[in-house]
């Protein structure tokens, strides 16, 4: 029997091992995109954080709903509550992926740094986490260096596209 992992890093690793890395990567990208978009008009980092948190919940619920509807059409029967709970738990990494954004935005809300700086810090943190996801995925899948570098590069590239969008829109 596999040893149980404790803490956020252990749970993230379990998500990678169980094939839920897509939810973590997607959640990070959604959080960065929402924070970036909100930073164009939001009056404060608190509003940006609330927008990120609310959007994470809505995207997570929409993702679960889409999977349940697909299950319903495949099985020709309404999903049972235990299936709803299983889907919600299975896609939890998408929701948890909003935590880094909320952590980075918190000091800005306390006046340690400005909201704009927080979004730039968030971009750097998100890109680092996307790289970590890519490396973890490559390691779990036992990919060679080239395939691992490709996956990691694509993850980083998607984060950089959001940063590029921020730069292009603001300048």
Q: Could you explain how this protein is built, in words?
A:
It is globular, with a radius of gyration of 17 Å. The chain starts with 6 loop residues before the first helix and ends with a helix. It has 171 residues and is mostly helical. Helices cover 81% and strands 0% of the residues. The chain has helices at residues 7-17, 21-39, 45-75, 81-90, 92-96, 99-109, 115-140, 145-170.
Structural key phrases:
8 helices, mainly alpha
Please provide the count of β strands: 0
Please describe the biggest sheet, giving its number of strands, its sense, and whether it closes into a barrel: none
Structural class by helix and strand composition: mainly alpha
Oligomer: single chain
CA(first)-CA(last) distance: 55 Å
Number of separate helices: 8
What is the arithmetic mean of pLDDT? 86
Helix content: over 70%
Strand content: under 5%
Unreliable stretches covering 5 or more consecutive residues: none
Pattern of helices and strands: HHHHHHHH
Molecular shape: globular
The value of Rg in angstroms is: 17 Å
Entry summary:
The chain has 171 residues and is mainly alpha-helical.
SSE blueprint:
Elements: H1 7-17, H2 21-39, H3 45-75, H4 81-90, H5 92-96, H6 99-109, H7 115-140, H8 145-170
Helix pairs in contact: 2-3, 2-7, 2-8, 3-4, 3-6, 6-7, 7-8
């Amino acid at each position: 029997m596999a040893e149980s992992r404790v803490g956020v890093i252990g749970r993230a690793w379990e998500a990678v091992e169980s094939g839920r890395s897509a939810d973590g990567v997607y959640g990070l990208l959604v959080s960065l995109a929402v924070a970036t978009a909100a930073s164009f008009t939001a009056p404060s980092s608190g509003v940006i954080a609330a927008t990120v948190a609310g959007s994470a919940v809505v995207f997570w619920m929409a993702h679960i709903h889409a999977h349940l509807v697909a299950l319903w059409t495949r099985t020709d029967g309404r999903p049972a509550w235990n299936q709803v709970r299983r889907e919600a738990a299975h896609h939890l990494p998408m929701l948890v992926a909003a935590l880094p954004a909320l952590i980075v935005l918190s000091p800005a809300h306390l006046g340690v740094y400005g909201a704009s700086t927080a979004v730039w810090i968030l971009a750097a943190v998100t890109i680092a986490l996307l790289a970590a996801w890519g490396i973890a995925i490559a390691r779990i899948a036992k990919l060679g260096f080239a395939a691992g570098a490709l996956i990691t590069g694509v993850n980083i590239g998607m984060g950089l596209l959001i940063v590029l969008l921020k730069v292009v829109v603001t300048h």
